[in-house]
Design goal:
The chain is α/β, with parallel strands linked by helices and 126 residues long. Helices cover 29% and strands 19% of the residues. Strand 1, helix 1 and strand 2 form a beta-alpha-beta unit. It is globular and about 40 Å long.
Amino acid sequence: MKFIALISGGKDSIFAALESVKFGHELTCLGNLYPVTEEVAADDIVNNEIDSYMFQTVGSEVIPLIAECMEKPLIRKPINGTSENQNLFYNIAEENKDEVEDLYALLKEAKEEYNIEAVSSSTAQS
């Protein structure tokens, strides 16, 4: 099964991707949502951390290097939304202001461009 690995720059997301490959799935591309605290190009190395309810942003500055080492295409999107919805059940936020909508846009692009069928992520003990 073709999949995108959502990577944060931490060891757990890389481990989850490698385990998926180990079980016979095809790693097609990598995905990452990065913090925007200033105007920065997606491939610049910057150390930015934001208070995100959903996404780890520490380590995001090394994501392009990880993609290069893994020899996989990388889809990056800025985190434009905030933690609007912190409820157990998710409802689409007005005007797509929630950070989860940024993830939706990233996955939609990956599906259209790389025909992915699955998503690998790591949320151990979160």
